[in-house]
Amino acid sequence: MDKNKIYKRLFRNYSKKYLDKIFLSAFLSVLVAGSTSAIAWLLDPAIKKLFIEKDQSLLIYIPLMIIMAFSTKGLSLYYAKATMIGVGESIKKNLQFDMVNTLVGTDTQIIDKKHSGKFISNITYDVTHITNLLSNAILTLFKDSLTLIGLLFVMFFQNWKLALISIIMIPIASFFAKTLGKRINKVATEAQEKSGFLTTYLVELFKNHKLIKIFQKEEYEKKRADKFLNQLKEKSQKIQTVNVRMSPIMEFLTGIMIAILIFYSGILMTKGELEINNFFSFLAAMMLAYQPVRSLSTLNMVLNQGLSAASRILPIIDQRNNINDSSEAKPIEIKNSNIEFRNVDFSYEINDGKTLNSINLKFEGGKMTSLVGHSGSGKSTIMNLIPRFYDIQSGKIIIDDQSINKLTLKSLREQISMVSQETTLFDDTIKNNIKYAKEDASDEEIYKVANLSFCNEFINNLPNKYETLIGENGVRLSGGEKQRLSIARAMLKKSSVILLDEATSSLDSETETKIQEALNILTKNKTTIVIAHRLSTILNSNNIYLIDSGKVIENGKHEELMNKSELYRSFYEKQIQK
């Protein structure tokens, strides 16, 4: 991405709305520059009047003016920095919100391609560098540029010959800063990559902590953690090292410059072209100019880090979904909730083999239809295509004679509820987890679905009842309890289509019985599509499709498939033998 385009984009979308505060900071920077220059200039009359001419009339006024200059500088600098801190944090929040806003609404397929840890690293690590670019760098540019101009004015006022010698340091410092800036850009990119790896690792570490313990991999994980942390430390250390590399360069240049100035000043004083008071005022101005010159010389590094981060973040914010409402999209009109797949082809990647190959399916409205087959046969894919988590390559998916591609996503997904084996819950209260399906649900509605899904059996035994925090993904609940909460949430939504993906697997028989009862209530008179490895849970299905390698092999009721399908009979007999 072109640098100028990045700058324009960041200004237009993020900095422009804070121009009033930026201008205020710029005005305060003028005061900082003026007061700093005044400090250097005041040494001239202080030395001349008080020490050389012994003029006592200014004994009070000059010290007071010096105090005023330092006070003005300190207060102006404080408010300028405080203002830009506010601007920076606002920009940071806006950037993070834009990223989250994009990621929340982005296609499932896009999210699947990148580990969540990498996105977290973008939101936390990269955004900080852009904030530095848009707030700290702007303040530095205003404050230090104006301060340097003011001090140069003092230097030229005191002696233009010495001033000309001094400004030689500025292009030399800029040359070194530009060289180091290129280096820091490369290292910053590598550091972000290592930060992404570390965040990814930490997400996996916390997610799989039980697995680590059961396989006694604590020492192994400690070594892995040390590896990731060490990689990030090395890159961060390189960035900091490159950053501070300007310090010895500037010290060396300043040392040479002062030595030259003292030598040349001695010559000028001998010729009578320079007074001692002019020299000290000039020297003070030059020493005060050291800080803005150093800041401006390292500004290029901050800019490079920010640009590098922006080149990673902006494409995420600009990510456009492939799954959108078409120009002719209309709200869904539900009649019978009949769903039909007509010659549907689908693959997750264009270059991959087909996951589904000319699939034809009919899910009768208000009835239960089951999908049976080996893992990887395409059952979950079929289910994920109905709410358009993914879009098909060819064919049609029809609901009540309406192509789902010509329906608004909002109205389509409003009619679908999903309960799966991998129950997804939030680190929130039980009440809010149920209420997630309907934000404005009344307490009575929540209690009703909790009762129908048998959640009350365990909720009433909890210390805070419905206000109990359940931990990350419901870690404080059992598998069956989490499933019942998921069913309660689906009940509250009152959708016409229910998708059940392995909803009763891995549960004990007593819990499974209760969940099955809750599911019977949830799916009554609803178009229900079930994936189940336990064939006992789908024996009463109105229709069963046998899926293998992305194709429909057979379909019918249980008794029919037992008679005509050797593959289905093999599934059933193996489970009976268990």
Notable characteristics:
10 strands; 20 helices; elongated; Rossmann fold; ABC transporter transmembrane region fold; 64% helix; alpha/beta; 578 residues; six-stranded mixed sheet
What does the model show?
The chain has 20 helices and ten strands. The chain is α/β, with parallel strands linked by helices and 578 residues long. The longest helix is centred in the N-terminal third of the chain and has 45 residues.
Count of β-strands: 10
Helix/strand-derived category reads: alpha/beta
Largest sheet: 6 strands, mixed
* Low-confidence region ranges: none
Termini distance? 59 Å
User: What fraction of residues sit in β-strands?
Assistant: 5-15%
The CATH class assignment of the largest domain is Mainly Alpha
The number of domains: 2
Radius of gyration: 35 Å
Spell out the helices and strands N to C: HHHHHHHHHHHEEEHEEHEHHHHEHEEEHH
> Which CATH-level-2 architecture of the largest domain?
Up-down Bundle
Number of discrete helical segments: 20
Provide a compact summary of the structure.
The protein is of the alpha/beta class. It has 20 helices and 10 strands.
SSE topology:
Layout: H1 3-15, H2 19-52, H3 61-105, H4 108-112, H5 116-158, H6 160-166, H7 169-207, H8 209-214, H9 218-244, H10 246-271, H11 276-317, E1 339-346, E2 356-363, E3 368-372, H12 379-385, E4 394-399, E5 402-403, H13 409-414, E6 416-420, H14 430-435, H15 443-452, H16 456-459, H17 479-493, E7 497-501, H18 509-523, E8 527-531, E9 543-548, E10 551-556, H19 558-564, H20 566-577
Parallel strand pairs: 3-8, 3-9, 6-7, 7-8
Antiparallel strand pairs: 1-2, 1-4, 4-5, 9-10
